[in-house]
Design goal:
Elements lengths: L21 H8 L2 H24 L5 H13 L10 H7 L13 H7 L7 H24 L1 H4 L3 H13 L1 H8 L4 H16 L3 H15 L5 H7 L3 H22 L1 H14 L2 H4 L7 H13 L5 H24 L12 H12 L13 H12 L6 H20 L7 H36 L1
Helix pairs in contact: 2-8, 3-5, 6-8, 6-10, 10-11, 11-13, 13-14, 16-17, 18-19, 18-21, 20-21
Length: 435
């Protein structure tokens, strides 16, 4: 990615010593041969990955989606039912199946898939995810939106495809790629002044995945009242429609799954990258895992205090009022914060970092970003890839394996820090340009 105007080699003569700089890296990424090479690698990797999914059919989270949708279609409550017997009859027992734990609106959207056989529905779902990824990459990196050159856009699009959380989302047959598309489309609608559509898209994201509702506070702070109105209307209409189609009891049964997802079972897992889970594991390692009301209260105060500290940081970094959010810097920060503040955040949630990464690349291409934000983003990207490669050769559940899994949280924090610097360094840039 690009760098600021001062990010240049020390000397430019024929005997100059090569240096790693933002401009030098951008020059490599902007070469046609490199763009074609990295894109071919991404395509071949994708084809190989699809082939492995076909050979070793493992529905993973899709089994929960499909079984839940099938129960909904038959008028049963997927939050109360044991999904495993149904999954066994359908040949989906290889996936993780227990109870439905996704928001009711998302499960309602899964019902049409149940009109297909499980195997066909699985591949239709993966095809939908692939189309959503392609559309997301187009909205984030296409020259008409990002201002990037064609070659640079192709290079960055290929790196987005190779981003490990993207592959993890496909391996688990998860839904977060659709969320990526929803948020990318929301950003583009805001840029075009279509706040009504942006509000409805954000409402859909909130109804289906909940944690993006944090962005509603960003909308309030930026005083985009029209978008806020459509957000509230979309939540009300979508929520009422969900209750009407699923029933009151089934819809509100989801509340019991929230308690389950925020229980110690999930918080103690080092696969959970949320701030609450990470701090809870630290708390239990220091004070022991024995549960008592006093300890749980202390842990709750510790975690909620950290959550409020992060919320204070992002609010302070957000210029109040309806002024322009240049390069969508603060919106990128809020998207990163919504992941880190989510009660549960798994590895594939990190694919949402493609939005701030894309905005940083666009700003770097214009020379309107300090050098540290994109370099921190690049470090987060590279560390994720390194961890994945090392984990493949480490025995599962060993001490080294668990330590490496904890490092995935560091990758999320690095992405958040990059987004924070991206949002706050603009003031330094503006002041220096005025001076």
């Amino acid at each position: 990615m690009g760098g600021d105007p001062g990010d240049r080699p020390a000397h430019d003569g024929p005997d100059a010593v090569p240096t790693v700089s933002g401009r030098g890296l951008a020059a490599i990424l902007d070469r046609r041969w490199f763009a074609i090479l990295i894109l071919c690698i991404a395509v071949l990797r994708g084809v190989s990955f699809c082939s492995s999914l076909e050979r070793n059919f493992d529905p993973q989270d899709f089994s929960v989606f499909y079984c839940s949708g099938l129960l909904l279609r038959s008028g049963q409550n997927p939050y109360d039912a044991d999904l495993l017997p149904l999954a066994r009859r359908l040949g989906l027992e290889k996936g993780y199946v227990l109870h439905a734990n996704n928001p009711p609106t998302l499960l309602l959207c899964m019902v049409p898939l149940t009109l297909l056989s499980p195997h066909r529905a699985y591949w239709a779902w993966q095809a939908l995810n692939a189309a959503a990824l392609a559309a997301s990459i187009f909205l984030l990196f296409a020259p008409r939106y990002s201002g990037l050159s064609g070659n640079l856009a192709l290079s960055l699009a290929a790196f987005a495809i190779l981003y490990p959380p993207v592959g993890n989302a496909f391996a688990l047959a998860q839904s977060k790629i659709l969320l990526l598309l929803t948020l990318a489309a929301t950003l583009r609608c805001m840029r075009c002044g279509r706040d009504s559509i942006a509000g409805l898209l954000l409402a859909m994201a909130g109804l289906c995945w909940l944690f993006p509702l944090l962005l509603g506070l960003y909308v309030v702070l930026k005083r985009r009242w029209r978008m806020l109105g459509y957000l509230i209307a979309g939540l009300a209409i979508g929520g009422l429609a969900t209750v009407a189609l699923e029933g009151v009891r089934t819809s509100f049964s989801f509340l019991t799954s929230i308690d389950f997802l925020t229980s110690r079972t999930w918080l103690s897992s080092n696969s959970n990258l949320s701030l609450e889970a990470f701090l809870s594991r630290i708390f239990w390692s220091i004070f022991g895992e024995a549960s008592s009301p006093a300890r749980e209260l202390a842990r709750g105060v510790f975690v909620r205090g950290a959550d409020l500290a992060v919320l204070y940081i992002i609010v302070r970094a957000t210029p109040l009022g309806a002024g322009e959010d240049r390069d969508w810097r603060t919106l990128s920060l809020w998207i990163a914060a919504s992941v880190i503040l989510s009660p549960t955040a798994w590895f594939h949630y990190l694919l949402l970092m493609l939005i701030p990464f894309a905005q940083m690349a666009s700003a770097a291409n214009c020379g309107s970003i300090s050098h540290r934000a994109p370099w921190m983003a690049a470090a987060s990207y590279l560390l994720i890839g390194l961890i994945g490669n090392v984990l493949a050769g480490v025995p599962p559940h060993s001490m080294a394996f668990n330590a490496l899994r904890e490092l995935e949280f560091a990758c999320l924090v690095m992405a958040f820090v990059a987004a924070y610097w991206f949002a706050t360094d603009q003031r330094v840039l503006v002041e220096s340009s005025v001076g």
